[in-house]
Each structure stands twice: as structure tokens, then as C-alpha cells.
């Protein structure tokens, strides 16, 4: 997407919503600019004018997801324990609307699988992952500063473990008939209570 063809904010949101719907309906491999345009009130030429290719549109869509992460995924609370638990729940379970949640994550997994072969995808996905990891790390650091979490914890390593577990649960759910989200949530709950939280705060739970 070039600067001269930058999408106005209102139009961009419309295009991103259409991209979301098309990905849920068709999956990444089968989605086209035409199918995405069919989910909006804009013609296909508008999509080509602003983005040129499906690749450029998908990169902006990944960027759009990152922009909405803080607003939609991070709970509005000052308590780091509640914030961490709420974020984990949102990332694991999301807002389910029929099977839309699962179909969307299937499309995202398809998109992520292209990253080893597509530098643009890889660069933006890496930015997304790093931002999310940093967010979880900062919540844990906040918990340590407030005396909620143990000082001996390595925030960076703990954030990596939590996110790896969530990513694994998503991949397992999508690629098999088994949903392990509840099991993974239970395991992360044990980590939070046994490894992160101080005994005094644990007694209050």
C-alpha cells in the first residue's frame, strides 16, 4: 500500500471488516480480492487501488489486528492478576459467535504458515508477536512491582511460556477434533497460582 493511495480511516475499517468476514467464510488459501469486496459495499477496483495485491491487503489486516489488540483483548482493570487472567481468557476463548471464532483462527493459522516464504507476512507477524509478548511481560512486571507476583520470576520467560501454551492450544484445536483450550487454561491457572503469585495473595483467591 503506497502513501499516495492511503486508505481513509472509515474506508479502511470497512475493508478490514470485509477481510475478516471473507477469511472466516473462505479461508486464506481461497480468499481473493473479489471475494473480500463482495463482503463490503465497495467495488473490487477500490481494493486494488488502495492495496494492489492480496498480499498487501493481508499485511495491513495483520497490522489492523495489532492496532485493536489493546482495546479489545486487554481487560480494563488496574489489578495485574485480573489483567493477566482476563487477557489469557480473551486470547484462548475470544468472543465466540457460532464457529466464527474457530474459522477465523484457522484462516490466521493459514496466513501464519505463509510467513516462512513471505517476508512481508513474516515481518508484520513478528511485530505482532513481539508486541503481545511485551504486553504480557509488562503485566507480570507490574504484578511484581505491586507485590502480587514473586520477585524471583523471569517476566520475559514466563510471558513466552504463557503465549506458547496459548498458541499450541489454538493450533491443536484447529488441526484436530480435540479442543484443549480448557486444559491449557487449567495448566496456566496452576502456573499463575503456584509459580507467580505470592502466598498471601494466593490465600485471598
Describe this structure in words.
This protein has 205 residues and is mostly helical. The chain folds into 2 domains: 3-56, Arc Repressor Mutant, subunit A; 68-204, Tetracycline Repressor, domain 2 (Orthogonal Bundle). It has 11 helices and no strands. It has helices at residues 9-30, 33-37, 44-51, 54-67, 69-73, 80-93, 100-113, 119-145, 155-175, 181-196, 199-204. It is elongated. The termini are far apart. The mean pLDDT is 88.
List its traits:
Arc Repressor Mutant, subunit A; 11 helices; Tetracycline Repressor, domain 2; 205 residues; single chain
- Dominant shape: elongated
> What is the N-to-C succession of helices and strands?
HHHHHHHHHHH
Distance between the termini: 49 Å
Q: CATH topology of the largest domain, what is it called?
A: Tetracycline Repressor, domain 2
Number of strands: 0
CATH architecture of the largest domain: Orthogonal Bundle
Overall pLDDT metric: 88
Structural class: mainly alpha
Helix content: over 70%
Low-confidence stretches: none
Number of alpha- plus pi-helical segments: 11
Please outline what is shown here:
With 205 residues, this protein is an all-alpha fold. Helices cover 74% and strands 0% of the residues.
Topology (SSEs and partners):
Elements: H1 9-30, H2 33-37, H3 44-51, H4 54-67, H5 69-73, H6 80-93, H7 100-113, H8 119-145, H9 155-175, H10 181-196, H11 199-204
Amino acid at each position: 500500500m503506497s502513501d499516495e493511495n492511503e486508505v481513509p480511516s472509515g474506508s479502511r475499517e470497512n475493508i478490514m471488516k470485509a477481510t475478516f468476514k471473507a477469511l472466516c467464510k473462505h479461508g486464506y488459501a481461497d480468499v481473493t480480492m473479489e471475494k473480500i469486496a463482495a463482503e463490503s459495499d465497495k467495488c473490487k477496483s477500490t481494493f486494488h487501488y488502495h492495496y494492489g495485491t492480496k498480499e498487501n491487503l493481508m499485511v495491513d489486516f495483520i497490522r489492523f489486528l495489532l492496532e485493536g489488540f489493546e482495546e479489545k483483548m486487554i481487560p480494563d482493570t488496574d489489578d495485574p492478576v485480573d489483567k493477566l487472567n482476563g487477557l489469557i481468557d480473551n486470547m484462548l476463548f475470544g468472543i465466540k459467535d457460532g464457529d466464527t471464532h474457530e474459522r477465523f483462527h484457522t484462516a490466521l493459522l493459514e496466513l501464519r504458515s505463509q510467513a516462512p516464504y513471505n517476508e512481508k507476512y513474516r515481518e508484520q507477524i513478528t511485530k505482532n508477536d513481539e508486541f503481545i509478548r511485551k504486553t504480557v511481560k509488562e503485566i507480570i512486571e507490574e504484578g511484581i512491582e505491586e507485590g502480587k507476583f514473586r520477585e524471583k520470576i523471569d517476566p520475559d520467560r514466563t510471558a513466552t511460556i504463557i503465549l506458547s501454551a496459548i498458541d499450541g492450544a489454538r493450533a491443536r484445536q484447529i488441526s484436530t477434533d480435540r479442543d484443549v483450550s480448557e486444559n491449557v487454561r487449567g495448566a496456566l491457572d496452576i502456573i499463575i497460582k503456584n509459580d507467580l503469585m505470592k502466598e498471601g495473595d494466593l490465600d485471598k483467591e
